[in-house]
Specification:
The complex is a heterodimer.
Chain A: E1 24-25, H1 34-51, H2 58-80, E2 85-97, E3 105-115, H3 116-139, H4 148-167, H5 171-189, H6 196-227, H7 232-239, H8 242-247, H9 251-267, H10 276-279, H11 285-294, H12 299-306, H13 308-312, H14 315-337, H15 342-362, H16 366-393, E4 403-404, H17 413-427, H18 433-447, H19 453-478, E5 484-485, H20 508-523, H21 541-548, H22 586-611, H23 613-625, H24 627-637, H25 642-688, H26 696-720
Chain B: H1 2-8, H2 13-33, H3 37-62, H4 66-96
Helix pairs in contact in B: 2-3, 3-4
Classes of the chains: A mainly alpha, B mainly alpha.
Chain lengths: ~725, ~110
């Protein structure tokens, strides 16, 4: 092999060879590859539709059929796989060895890692993908025959990449999917490429994501260098044995979690890198719902959950995750409170909710994070799709000051009421799905010991109140109150003959998807009440089960790793709960606290945006006119000047550097080296040109003179010897 | 010089080479100083003859007939070349109606 003799550092001989993992290799599940294959087929067919300028809805039909197939395959896989997990080998990708030892090889194949965590993700990804594609078949109608096929091709690419990301059995294929979803996101944000803002947003998303991708690439490399494998089954086998684990400890095991974190924060829009997500709303709304709310942005949570044992090696990294998540949640919520563009509010809300999920991961409740991912996928997709329906019907109008009382308009009832369901879930209204999933995270912030986690917990509760406020600010403004509206500026034949605007209400495809998603958002609360199959001491029902059988199992309340050192860790089902809040068990107290806080936010929104809308304006005017508080609404409306800050510290220096480099290239490289060198022959030629006067005699003189000189030299050399010896 | 005279008779190698050198010098001088194409051409013929004389002389000196063989070849080639050169001169004269070499300086630029 070419790699013969390659040294694997830190893989000393004292480390026992990695034994065969307890994961079963299952050739009989090869049909699971359909989940990857179907979106690819759909991509090719959509490409053909674009090439043959198909003017019908064929691309939408193809894509939704393919995605439905992928969803059915995922469910079949869930019903047929054997816990704790199986590896389905599809085809060899990279598979090299340079010796006989177990560590003298490197394998990264197109293999699927079917365990409960990947199944949880792939089921909601493909399921929501199918629904949103159906929605998009109606939403994208104005582009029939223009960008229609291109749009669905992009969705297919996204689903293929997302499936590779979620299902891969090694970090390299995950990286492939990671880059793939980034590319699909770029493709679809820039769908309206005639609009400069969309192009800028696409570039911003891509470039900001590259920063995170760098972290992932380095992390994958370091993981291979440290542990000698990038396959999950081998990796977790190594990490689950304490004495082996300690033999790896070094600077790399400390660095890996931070690099993975960087990747996750880029893709999942957390604090230093969240700025791309709100701008990503330039894409078509189904894309915002699918990629930038429900699925792709949860890839960061998936990555951390998947590599959770690596984070457990470095507990400080989880504290960082918790704090970054908590602060992002608060910051994004405060920005969301002050925006007027409803889609943008939803975008900030997504950033905020993703912050909750990272908070959950940081405070050792992967179950809470996964459950919140699951419920959030439904209700946030629903909220985005209702916003999209409104935008579609009102010619691009998204300003909540220019829309009111939509529930009174004919044809808009389904949109309004499904939006209410989504808003209730997002606000954490008691007994909705968001209520249970958010509480799982909030309570654990008070249970787990960590630096300032109690402060973080209170901040998260405050954020829950703000969430309820801004969510219902949207709903009360847009759907409640007296019916009134102003059209946006994207007219496509909605005016009657007198030029009067008529909103066109959503039809069957959109309404059906909204209703299904609303039901889904409500039903997503049910898993919480399902009994635990894996371990009856667990709480949290089905989702906890799903996480229990995976790499993220150490972050489940009540998990017993088997060795006595961890027994009773943060185990509360047997009454050993750590921490308390107001003298009560946090899990019980949180039902009351978060419910109350949510209701306060909701009532505040009702007061300012439903009953006394004039008070909201008066309050804003009053705040802005006071010196001591005036900065707050201003800063919130300007998004805390984060974009301006990045512009000043990153974009402007880079811009200057770019111009300096450009000048260097133009004047030094081009000017002196390239053009300067090119000028040498020309100058010499001009200087020597007179010699070539063309007169026969002068040529003859030169020739004779030259011959003479040569002869003279030869005569001299023959007389006095040749230089450097005789010849 | 006496040794040379004894081996070569009254005409020594030195004499022959001197003649060759003189012919060559006249040829070069004429070629460089004159502007008339035909005269210049004659000067080149003179230089040819200088070479030819030198070859005959060396052939005699080394008692080797290759020198004379080459002379025969050179004379043949020179005859052919003379025909070509004169033809060219005629053509050039037809173009510009002059035999002045300075009329043909287009190669300069």
């Amino acid at each position: 092999m070419m790699l013969h003799g390659l040294h694997v550092p830190l893989m000393s001989t004292g480390v026992p060879a990695v034994p065969a993992a307890d994961v079963i290799v299952a050739p009989d599940l090869a049909w699971a590859g359909l989940i990857l294959l179907l979106p690819l087929v759909s991509l090719v067919l959509c490409g053909l539709c674009a090439a043959f300028r198909v003017r019908s809805k064929l691309p939408a039909v193809i894509t939704s059929a393919a995605l439905a197939g992928a969803f059915v395959t995922s469910v079949m896989l869930y019903l047929n796989y054997t816990p704790p997990g199986e590896v389905v080998h599809l085809l060899d990708w990279i598979n090299v060895s340079w010796g006989s030892g177990a560590i003298d090889s490197f394998a990264a194949n197109f293999s699927l890692y079917i365990d409960s965590l990947s199944l949880l993700w792939i089921m909601f990804v493909t399921g929501l993908g199918t629904l949103i594609t159906i929605y998009a078949s109606e939403y994208m109608e104005p582009d029939l025959g223009k960008g229609y096929a291109r749009f669905f091709a992009g969705v297919s690419v996204f689903l293929f990449a997302m499936a590779s990301l979620v299902l891969s059995d090694n970090l390299l294929m995950l990286y492939l999917g990671w880059e793939g979803v980034g590319f699909a996101s770029y493709w679809l944000i820039g769908y309206y490429y005639q609009r400069p803002s969309a192009v800028a947003a696409a570039k911003k998303a891509f470039i900001v994501n590259r920063i995170g991708d760098l972290g992932l690439a380095l992390a994958v490399y370091l993981i291979w260098v440290t542990f000698g494998t990038v396959q999950y089954d081998e990796l977790t086998t190594v990490l689950q044995h304490e004495d082996w684990r300690t033999s790896f400890e070094g600077w790399t095991t400390s660095a890996i979690p931070y690099l993975l974190m960087l990747a996750a924060f880029g893709k999942s829009a957390q604090l230093p890198l969240y700025v791309w997500l709100p701008d990503a709303m330039e894409g078509p709304t189904p894309v915002s719902a699918l990629i930038h709310a429900a699925t792709m942005v949860t890839a960061g949570i998936y990555l951390v959950a998947r590599t959770y044992p690596l984070f457990m090696l470095e507990p400080t990294s989880l504290h960082v995750v918790a704090w970054v998540g908590g602060l992002t949640a608060l910051l994004a919520a405060t920005i969301g409170m002050a925006q007027y563009d409803i889609k943008r509010i939803m975008a900030y809300s997504t950033v905020s909710q993703l912050g909750y999920m990272f908070l959950g991961l940081g405070v050792l409740t992967t179950y809470g994070a996964a459950y919140h991912v699951f419920t959030h996928a439904f209700f946030k997709a629903l909220l985005f799709l209702t916003c999209g329906a409104i935008m579609h019907g009102f010619a691009g109008q998204l300003d909540l000051r220019k829309l009111s009382g939509l529930r009174h308009l004919p044809g808009w009832r389904i949109t309004s009421w499904t939006m209410l369901i989504g808003a209730l879930c997002l606000a954490g209204f008691p007994f909705t799905s968001g209520y249970f999933s958010k509480d799982a995270i909030l309570a654990e912030a008070f249970v787990t010991q960590g630096p300032g986690f109690r402060v973080l917990g209170w901040l998260a509760i405050l954020t829950a109140g703000l969430t309820a406020y801004y969510t219902f600010r949207v709903w009360f403004r847009v759907c409640a109150g007296p019916a009134a509206y102003e059209a946006g500026d994207e007219h496509h034949g909605d005016e009657d003959h007198s030029g009067h605007f008529h909103p066109h209400a959503p039809r069957l495809a959109i309404n059906a998807v909204l209703v299904i998603l609303a039901i889904g958002a409500l039903v997503a609360a049910l898993p919480y009440f399902m009994s635990n199959q894996a371990d009856e001491r667990l709480v949290g029902g089905w989702v906890a089960d799903m996480v229990h059988d995976s790499t993220a199992r150490e972050g489940i309340p009540g998990f017993h790793p088997g060795d006595p050192a961890h027994a009773g860790g943060h185990h509360h089902a047997d009454g050993h709960a750590h921490g308390h809040i107001l003298g009560m068990d946090p899990h019980v107290a949180m039902y009351w606290i978060s419910g109350t806080v949510g209701m306060v936010g909701l009532l505040l929104a009702a007061w300012l945006h439903l009953w006394r809308r004039d008070h909201a304006d008066a309050l804003r005017r009053w705040m802005r006119s006071r010196v001591w508080i005036g900065w707050l609404p201003r800063a919130m409306e300007r998004k805390w000047y984060v974009d301006e800050f990045y512009h000043a510290i990153i974009r402007a220096p880079l811009w200057i550097l770019g111009h300096v480099c450009h000048a260097f290239d133009r004047f030094i490289i081009d000017g002196i080296f390239v053009d300067g060198l090119a000028r040498v022959p020309r100058g010499v030629a001009r200087w020597l040109q007179p010699l070539q006067a063309g007169a026969v005699q002068s040529l003859a003189v030169v020739m004779v003179g030259g011959t003479m000189i040569i002869l003279l030299l030869m005569a001299l050399f023959m007389q006095f010897g040749w230089p450097g010896g005789s010849i | 010089m006496n040794l040379l005279a004894a081996t070569m008779g009254s005409v020594s190698l030195a004499h022959a080479l001197l003649l060759s050198g003189v012919l060559m010098a006249i040829g070069i001088a004429g070629f460089v100083s004159r502007r008339n194409l035909i005269v210049m051409f004659l000067c080149t013929e003179l230089m040819f003859q200088a070479v030819v004389v030198a070859m005959v002389a060396f052939g005699r000196w080394y008692w080797d007939f290759s020198g004379q063989v080459f002379v025969i070849f050179i004379l043949t080639v020179a005859a052919a070349e003379a025909a070509l050169a004169l033809a060219l001169v005629v053509l050039l004269h037809r173009r510009r109606a002059t035999l002045d070499a300075d009329a043909w300086t287009e190669l300069r630029e």
